[in-house]
Each structure stands twice: as structure tokens, then as C-alpha cells.
TrEMBL record:
Residues 98-301 form the Tyr recombinase domain. Belongs to the 'phage' integrase family. Keywords: DNA integration, DNA recombination, DNA-binding. The keyword Calcium does not apply. It comes from Asaia spathodeae. SUPFAM superfamilies: DNA breaking-rejoining enzymes. Gene3D superfamilies: Intergrase catalytic core. This is Tyrosine-type recombinase/integrase. InterPro entries: DNA_brk_join_enz, Integrase-like_cat_sf, Integrase_catalytic, Tyrosine_recombinase_XerCD.
Amino acid sequence: MILSSVIDHYLSHKRSLGMRFETPERMLRRFCRGAGDPEITAISSVMVSEFIRGRGTPSSTWIFRYRILTGFYRFAISRDYADCSPLPVTVPKPPRQQTPYIYSTEELCRLLEATSILGLRRRPEIPALYRTLLLLLYGTGMRIGEALRLTLQDVDLAENLITVRDTKFFKMRYVPFGTRLGKELAGHLQRRRCFPMIQGERSPFFTTHNGQPWRYTRVISLFQRIREEAEITCPIGELRPPRLHDIRHTSAMHRMLSWYRSGQDVQQLLPRLSTYLGHVDIRSTQRYLHMTPELLEAASQRYAQYARGADYEG
């Protein structure tokens, strides 16, 4: 059986299990094109190694390609499409996972100000568009993909509520937002209606000038320019600079910090934060929370208050 047909069967199998599998599909299709779509049994270990290695040294991309192809060939062998796996036997040590970066309030302001550099003669709307996206990501803690998949009908300005559909785990959730963010979204919506609405109220909330959805890769490349303009550099000890995704981590951390400072029961509120972020369980949320100096100070003050109360009762 030719490689593309086996890939089709594999993707159908994965999606029958409830997986979206969009990024792995793109990778597998690229592998198929590069190989020339031969019979799957004609794929050699050299072809696989060259594809996995890419242009540089082993990286997270190397590991990702290796894992996807491992799953693919496990499926192919179990269905008798292939006799053996041509994947490398020796797997290099994966690179250290990047530590989530928590932006300060001052850094967030610099990012917002830096959106002004995106202004182009033919696309003057981009700075305001990107500013709205940054504020939405911070104000709601949404994933980038979730924000880019929003449609006009998903944003209810009257109820200050966003409907997040087709999430990472194929669930729907509601995300409330505050008055200040509501005003920003209202301004964006007014500007948005000046552009084509190909699908009416189901048209993309974030769009290009011709009404098409804003692409993830485009959003990331623009953020790299913004981050450089805002002079936010690679932290000491890290190999890569802060990411746009780190705004989601920042949103969760700042919310938790505000709970500590306002004297609320953080442990009781954590499950609510988990639901708000769209996590399947609280363990996923806990991975987003890192002990920053501000959070450590707030937690220490809370413990000091508790200790004084215990001494008084004793």
C-alpha cells in the first residue's frame, strides 16, 4: 500500500479516538511528499533519518517527528501494512523543556506599546488588532489557537461572555471577561465589521483584510517582532526567549497572586482556575504555576498571618 493511503487510515483511526491531530497530519503529509509517496515498504531507514534530523542538531522538533513516526509505524505494523519500523534505534536525549516565562505588568505594557511597529501603509489595522489579541489572551488566559478560532457569534458583549468551542480536548466552555476588556473587544468588533464577513456571524473574530482567519504562524512571527521592540530578551539560563504562549502562564500566575493578596482561599479556588483555563484536571493547572518572588512573598505573608492567628489562639 502506498504511504499516503496508510497515512489516511492512521489519521482516521486517531480521529475516531477523539483526537484532532492537525499538526501531526501536516508533519506526516510533509514526510510523504518528501519521500515521493512510494509503497510504505520502500521507505528506508536513511530516508526516515534524514527527515527526522532536518537541517540542524536534535531539538524538540526532532523528538516530535520521531514520536509521531513511531506511532505511525506502530499502527502500520499492527495492520500488516509494514513488516518493520525504519526509525533510528538510538534516540538522543531530548532538549530541556523551556521554563514558562512570567511577564511583569511593566513588560506587558511594553508589549502593548510595541504593537505600534506593526503598522503598514496597506494594513494600518494590524496594531489595534494585535493589541486586542494580547489583551484577550491575558484577560482570559485562553490558548492562542482558541482565540484565533473565535467567531463573531462566540463573543457576547451584552453578557461579557466568550464561548470557546472546539478546544484542545474537544469540549466547550464559557469564559467571562471584565468591563475593561469588554470595551476593548467592543472597539475591535466595530473595526472588524468593516472587513468582509464571508460567513456572517460565524466569520472569524480575528481576520485578515480579506475576511480570512488569522494564521497561527503569522501571529507568532509578528510577536517575535513585538517582543524584540519591547526589549524582552532571553532569560539567563534559557536557550530561547519568552513566547506568546507564556501570556497564558502569566494570566494564571497573576490571578493566583491577586487571590493571595486579597486574602482568598487559593486552594479552594484552584479547581475554578483549572476549569477557567480549560484543563482536564487540576494537575495540568499546577504545572502552570511557578514560584515567582511576588508569589513567594504573598504566600509568606499569608503564612505569617496564619501563624500569628495560631499563636493568639494558643
